[in-house]
Amino acid sequence: MNNVKIPAIMILITLLSASLAGCIGNEEESNSSNCSGDDLKIAFDLKDDLTPESIDNPSRIADYLCDVLDMDVTIYDVDSAALAMEALRFGNADIAMNIDGGPAWVGWNAYNLEVLAADTKDDGRAFYNAHAWVLKGSEMELALNDDDENTDPFALLEGKTSCHTGWLKSAGMLMPMGFLIGNGYVNVEGDLSDTETLRTTINDYFDGSTGKGNPASIPVSGGLYSGYAGALECLSDGHGDVAFAKDSTVGSYCANDDATDNAEWCLDISQYVPLPKFGSSPSHSVMYNEEVLAEDKEQAIKDALIQMKDDEEGLAILQEVLGTDAMVATNSQDHLGTYGAALENIPGISTKYGNAFDGGTALSDIKSTITIAYYLAEDSSADANAIGMAERLENDLGVNVELYDVSSEGMIIQALRFGNADIGFMEGGPAWIAWKEYNLQVLAVETTTAERDTYYNAAAWVLANSTMAQYHLDGDETTDPFAELAGKTSCHTGWLKSAGMLMPMGYMIGNGYVNTVGDAEDINSLRDTINGHFDGSTGAGNPASIPESGGLYSGYSGALECLSEGYGDVAFAKGDEFSTVHKYCDNDDSNDNSDWCLPLDQYVQLPAWGSSPSHPIMYNPETLDVRTRNAILNSMLSWNDEMWVEDYDMNGENYTGCYNTVTNFVAEIPQTQCGGEILSTVTSKGYGLAAGNSQNHLGSYSDLLSAIPGLSKYYHDEKYGITDAQESSLVS
Description:
7-stranded mixed β-sheet; globular; disordered N terminus; 4 domains; alpha+beta; 6-stranded mixed β-sheet; single chain; D-Maltodextrin-Binding Protein, domain 2; 26 helices
């Protein structure tokens, strides 16, 4: 555990607190005269209006433990949980009681403090589970219950309207957002030390407080839709699509034995569906410092606390002072583990808990060395901007950055799998394998146009006089254009091409239009499947249903020419805003159109199959922590706004350097470290980067590819040669 430097003001506060140590009121009155054993100091955050006669006065605990343990027990007055942790660290208190989950987690992770025991809740558990609640029939519920591993209900939350219990509430915000951030569904953009970054992150990812007329996506305390009841009401009333609450919320408000006790806004209980839990939120803890508290003393205190429920006086103290019916023995990992795993992903969490991380800890620092898997050419001049990228990251983040030289997409996957690299640039196909087989995740994605597109849609093109076109345009739900493709002659762009073969065949196989012919583990079965479903290469005199690379009717233009000249009945190509038809047959100057083009109205696009992704940057969430990940992302995204200028006139002066188009500042850094220069060479199209996540970027593509017989095996074993090799090749 790293040592933490404590600011002088914190030390001063601690010393002042120490001067207040002692029981509430007069020490002689608080301690029984027969308590002559070891000292026991209990750190406790006292209420301002507390009196010696108050029923919730913790001196009752001191007196009780004095009698049971024969120890001289005093209450060490602290005015925050952060100071309670300080008291344990420096030995000013032996145990701290009534510690909430957040500061308990800080104490455990930052200071190696441990949990001794914990309060129980109404149901006897020392925790409750945090869930996302959705309505039956929603996209999320259907994805949860469709028995398809490729559909992910959490990925569908993006763009929906969220109902949180309140700002920085555990089950209502911290745990779900920590889970979503930590698992790559949500990327944090902004200052990672500022809690307000979480607010903008929520508003960017979800539909926000204005969506669907929702007045309270993040409600103010005590306001409309606040608390557990409010979040569930927000969902029930249709203002939101998902409510973040605890496992017992629906039962508490909508499943009472007497239906008249249910909230008036409740739907039938069957309408509420919980998604898998985010984790467990802990009850209040009793904590200690194992370096200070002797083991036998620790055990005696634990036994006494647990046994309080078994006698009348002890039970009354538990209920009236601590608000619980019992304490149970536990430990830090069991009590705080899943909660902490979520909390550590929340930006600015240290601020919430009294800047407990001042001075720096392992929880707030990013990795000291970041490694990028990148193919380096033999020509060193071609690698200038890859090296410039590493140097720029070093300058932005203040850490060492290294390049990990790879010669294949498979090596990138292996480097990320085994922790030899932190991020890697790869294509869509290997990214799909990396995601589905090894749980690697998308960090950022390349933009492929000046409009910052990150995908293109794949579609089937048919002629206007075809049955397929008529069925598509007739407005009749009973006529299906895709069903009419059986027996027709197909025009593919080439063997195993995305838009020209894999995506349309994946769609038709996955949706039951096409039955696979042959071995489901052999990629060559796809050729037999195509020839079996369509008319094949001999149909209609078509010499190239599945053309050879570079041969007749190959590529996007070839597939469309195949359709235009009547050799084929359907061409598989790009659709929508990336339309192959418009690229070749709808130029401003008609002389630029291909000579085989028909009039534009002769081409009809059937509904798109799905989206083919741009090249992503991938990472391994098991080896790259969320703070480092987001620091890398924020740095790389800032490069989009930079361009290299020479003798640039600004305010009457000429500048040469890296010009930021947002700030209008010219930085005097090497050209190879300027954002625009980096992106122009390290990305495939030279445009830039955008934040991304795996499901949104690869989801529809993955759904299609997963249906192709033998594709996963072919990609894994043959095309990308993925092995268990862990060789390392670092380039300074």
